Amino acid sequence: MTLKQLRYLIAIVEAGSFSSASRRAYIAQPALSRQISLLESELEMQLLDRQHDGIALTDAGRQLYEVARQVVQKLDSVKDELKSSRGDPKGHVAISIPATAADLLLPEIVRRAEQRFPGVTLTVWDGLSREGGQAIELGKVDFGVVPNAEELEHVEAEPIFTEALYWVGASAPGTPDTITLAEAAATRLVLPPRTLHLRRRIEQAAMEAAVPLAAAYEQQSAPGIASLVRAGLAATISNWPPLSVLLEPTAARRIVEPRISRTIALAHSQHKPLSFAAGCLRDLVRSVLIDLVNSGRWRGELIGKEAEPLESVLGVQLAV
After folding, report:
1. pLDDT band at residue 295 under the 50/70/90 scheme
2. pLDDT by residue (tens digit) across 79-116?
């Protein structure tokens, strides 16, 4: 059994077929098939079930895949650590961010990473909170920005700030900038499906406040929700980042009585310790989040030490 064979097995599983994996791994498909056949012969067990539309792991294949992924990740992290021993982080770092916050986060993260850590190759996954959470749990990314850390298993999370939720829809001039949850729930709403954390958080708050809540429409994508709101066909309940891009022409009213909030955190898998490079990038992303909150571009309230004045953090009195 060789490390190359383990990498090929991982590539096939993650690509879903031999043909796709051969293109990703830059190896001819017959040669790739031969390497897996040699591995199966050595172990005397079938690892992959070849099907007309791809592959499926056998029980033995699933066990080996999990071990292989951990082994390869560990070896790659050791190589990165050795390269970084001179003080400059090097290697590959993968992170996940919520798709609805990509316009705020992605340019800032990439710009700062290029300036401060040119030796790091960065991959950023932007997707639904469910997808980002699963990527963190499975160790597919080094860490991520998540609104649902409390729902994830076997992760270490660092809360950064809380964000309020807003009712978004057509409002007459002079309308107050706040709205009760009961008033918001009485409007015609388009909401994301229950598979998304935002919807579950809204329904949890409504249940705790004994407020009836029903969605007239369900729509998974933020652009789809925004199109219905801008057309005046429905209102929605949203966190702040989409408001600055997708929902800008409409009025946003912060929900009170009760206030609905979510905690934005940095999280990583307990089974995948952060490399030196990943730790540097996590510190960078933390600073990006704090700066966005302090500037008002992401409406929220910092938690703990992040919210303390600089004087108290440093233990000195700053001259003014």
Report:
1. very high
2. 665 555 556 788 889 999 998 899 999 999 999 999 99
Q: The domain 88-162+263-302 belongs to what CATH superfamily?
A: Periplasmic binding protein-like II (3.40.190.10)
The pLDDT of residue 309? 42
140-171 pLDDT, tens digit per residue, is 899 999 998 988 988 999 999 999 999 999 87
Residue 227's CB: how many other CB atoms inside 10 A? 14
Cα torsion for 155, 158, 164, 167, to the nearest 10°?
-30
CATH architecture for segment(s) 3-80: Orthogonal Bundle (1.10)
Domain 166-259 has CATH 3.40.190.290: yes
Query: Is 143 within 8 Å of 274 (Cβ atoms)?
Result: yes
